[in-house]
Amino acid sequence: MENQLEMREAEKPRRKLPKIGRRPIIIACAMLLIAAAVVLNVVLFSGDDGVVNPGDTPTGDSVADGEGDTTVATGDGYFSATQVSRQRARDEALEVLQSVVDSESADEATKTEALLEISELARAMEAEANIETLIMAKGFAQCVAVINGDTCSVVVSGGELQQNQISQINEIVYEQTGIAPANIRIVTK
Predict the structure, then answer these.
(1) Which of 88, 92, 135, 181 could form a disulfide with 143 if both were Cys (CB 3.0 to 4.6 A apart)?
(2) Looking at the domain assignment, is residue 142 inside a domain?
(3) pLDDT-flagged residues of the chain (< 70)
(4) Burial class (CB in 10 A: 0-12, 13-18, 19+), 115
(5) What CA–CA distance (Å, rounded) separates 45 from 188?
(6) CATH code: domain of residue 92
(7) Is residue 151 part of a domain?
């Protein structure tokens, strides 16, 4: 009888990976969903009116739509809505992470991971604010920056960007975050 138990134990597959608790998985999924929502918000609401990727050279062809200030008013609403949406997503992420930190049932590793995520979010929020302020100081009326890991999307108001404006934006983002220009996406609205 004892030999049969030993044989059954030997036949069971052994778990080689460490057991991962539910909380780290929930935190990771929540962060991914929030990041995806912020990026989708920028991409969907920016339209196709002017994506500038690294290496693109401006053609200088700009088309006037004859709507005058209406475009600017719509753009202002876009920037405000995007900033509010980004802040709401970040607040929700911080709330989830803080609840993990405050939870008595969470282990120390999970709490430490949550604190690191909170720290990363705070750094990203500060960098985004700095980028927006510095880009607007260069003459852009509106700007929204979204940092997602090692990429950054920047939406600026205006028409076709000149090469020197693209370089200025890339330089500002690099100085504030260390993100290489190849990972910076610039969109005009």
Answers:
(1) 135
(2) yes
(3) 1-20, 36-76
(4) middle
(5) 11
(6) 1.10.287.4300
(7) yes
DSSP state of 57: -
pLDDT of residue 41: 65
Give residue 43's identity as a one-letter amino acid code: V
Coil, helix or strand at residue 61: coil
- Provide the sign of the torsion angle of the four alpha carbons 116, 41, 137, 159, taken in this order: positive
Which residues make Cβ contacts (< 8 Å) with residue 185, sequence separation at least 6?
A: 51, 52, 53, 151, 152, 153, 154
Give the structural domain span for 137.
Answer: 21-56+69-188
Rounded to two decimals, the pTM is: 0.61
Q: How many helices (H) and strands (E) does the chain have?
A: 5, 4
pLDDT tens per residue across span 22-74: 777 777 777 777 776 666 666 665 544 444 444 443 333 333 333 333 333 34
Bridge partner list, 187: 51, 155
With contact defined as beta carbons under 8 Å apart, do 118 and 94 qualify?
Answer: yes
HSE of 139, CA atoms in CB hemisphere, 13 A: 8
Interatomic CA distance for residues 175 and 181, integer angstroms: 11
- Run of H or E residues at 153: strand 151-156
Side chain identity at residue 111, one-letter code: K
Q: Is residue 10 part of a domain?
A: no
Q: How many domains are contained in the chain?
A: 1
